[in-house]
Design brief:
The chain is an alpha/beta fold. The chain has 20 helices and 7 strands. It folds into 3 domains: 69 residues, no CATH class; 114 residues, no CATH class; 235 residues, no CATH class.
């Protein structure tokens, strides 16, 4: 086998050229510094008392008197088991001699708070990092024994006091007997209560297995049959209005359809903004490298170039998205025909007046905001290598912003989603995801107004960066030249 001849000096020169070609770009240093920035933000965020999903408060109205206390006991058992796993993990990673048996013994006899106090007194460097798992929901005593009155608490018309604070009742499990059978209904205004329903299923499955094991005459088939869920809990929403085709407050798949539609619309919004903004970046870079921008500036104002590019690429992006909109429209019609009245009702609830108004509003504002930002980046780029490295951090930011979609599907009442509505980078996506929850008009208008003001600020800033990038050559070297001239007051040559 004959190896190819390699000149190490020429190889070194090629490698150095590629290395320096990337390391001198804006995108490289932005990507290089991003882990440190997010690391610092993550460090401070870990100390904030801010929950992605707020704790829900559940009550049990057990008219049979047989299961309420047992359900709560099972919940306490599961929570303690999860807490004990945390202390067991501390023992496994700790090298402190004798700590394991002492810590677990304190937890088993005195509880989690005593174990935390022990860690704080003996090993403060460990206790500062310990966070016990927070339950997604906890049980409270029903604020009323009248079921109709409890609906007022679920709807938010009334609040109850929990640990000295007024709180909203998230849901109520009602157990009652009818025709010799125990029935269960779960009432909540929340869309996603899968966690609560899965817990109730685990309880009744455990009861079924316990009853079977105490009956005698055990068989494998009988045990497997006992493990199968037989107790079904129907879900109801007391805030659901009964009118027209809606004859019951039972929760159906039509209630979840508006959130799915909002998620799809948010993803479409993300694709439109990203594809249009990326075309602006590449278009700006090509015209800069071909010296077309210098010729355009001789006869065209700076603002006219920026707005002209935004308008032209917007038209191109919308034209490119037409097939997706057509496919979506056909899919909606097909789902209405195949799915029947239930799906039709869900789609009707999804496309409300607010959706028709604010989706195009946030589409335009989001496009202008990100488009101006990409124009500014395009003027700073000196090569396709530079543009590629600049795209990476922006893609990461856009991906983080679109993470509001799973939050909106799993926990529409999350304060993170509400906060994202006021953050300009994520506001267009978060506002669309909140529409099925019917937020107040003033919140949507103020959020759109805030994004509009930030878009104007980005356009102004993009104009400044545009002038600097086109006329000064941009690049990291351009910043050093500016720093020496403006800050150090040194004269630059060339």
């Amino acid at each position: 086998m004959i190896l190819p001849a390699i000149n190490m000096r020429r190889t070194y020169l090629v490698a150095r050229r590629d290395f320096l070609g990337y390391i001198k770009t804006w995108g490289f240093w932005i990507s290089f510094l991003m882990p440190f920035v997010f690391g610092v933000l993550g460090f401070f965020a870990s100390s904030w008392e801010f929950d992605l999903e707020p704790t829900r408060y559940e009550a049990i109205l057990d008219e049979t008197g047989l299961h309420g206390h047992k359900i709560r006991a099972l919940r306490d058992t599961e929570l303690k088991a999860n807490e004990r796993k945390v202390f067991e993990a501390i023992d496994q990673v700790s090298a402190v001699t004798g700590m394991k048996s002492q810590l677990l013994d304190i937890y088993d006899k005195q509880g989690s708070q005593a174990a935390l106090n022990f860690l704080e007194g003996e090993f403060p460097q460990i206790s500062n990092r310990v966070k016990l798992p927070k339950p997604s929901f906890i049980f409270v005593d029903p604020p009323s024994n009248d079921f109709e009155d409890l609906k007022e608490y679920i709807n938010g018309n009334k609040t109850f006091m929990h640990e000295g604070k007024p709180s909203k009742l998230s849901g109520v499990l009602r157990l009652y007997e009818e025709d010799g059978k125990i029935l269960g209904n779960h009432w909540s205004t929340l869309v996603n209560t899968d966690g609560e329903l899965r817990f109730y299923s685990r309880y009744f499955r455990a009861i079924s297995v316990e009853n079977y094991l105490s009956s005698g005459g055990l068989t494998v088939d009988g045990l497997n049959d006992a493990r199968q869920p037989k107790f079904e809990i129907e879900s109801f929403n007391p805030a659901k209005e009964i009118s027209g085709e809606v004859t019951s407050q039972a929760v159906t798949k039509s209630d979840m359809i508006p959130y799915v539609v909002a998620a799809v619309m948010t993803v479409m919004l993300w694709l439109t903004i990203f594809s249009g903004s990326y075309m602006l970046l590449t278009s700006m870079l090509e015209e800069k490298l071909n010296k077309l921008l210098e010729m355009m500036l001789a006869s065209t104002r700076l603002s006219e170039i920026i707005f002209g590019k935004l308008l032209g690429v917007a038209a191109l992006t919308l034209t490119a998205m037409i097939p997706y909109f057509l496919i979506g429209g056909v899919g909606i019609v097909a789902a209405t025909i195949i799915g029947g009245p239930e799906v039709a009702a869900g789609l009707s609830n999804a496309f409300t007046l607010k959706m028709f108004i604010f989706f195009p509003v946030f589409l335009v504002l989001g496009y202008i905001f990100y488009g101006s930002f990409f124009i500014a980046l395009g003027t700073l780029a000196n090569s396709m290598q530079d543009a590629q490295t600049l795209t990476t951090p922006i893609m990461l930011i856009l991906t983080m912003c679109v993470m509001v979609v799973p939050v909106g599907l799993n926990s529409p009442e999350s304060p993170v989603l509400q906060l994202a509505t006021w953050f300009p980078l994520s506001a267009p996506f978060a506002a669309i995801m909140r529409l099925p929850s019917d937020p107040p008009w003033w919140e949507l208008i103020m959020s759109a107004g805030f994004v509009f003001l930030m878009a104007l600020a980005v356009i102004w800033f993009a104009g400044r960066i545009f002038r600097f990038g086109v006329l000064s050559g941009a690049g990291v070297k351009g910043i050093w030249v500016w720093f020496k001239r403006v800050v150090l007051r040194r004269k630059t040559v060339g």
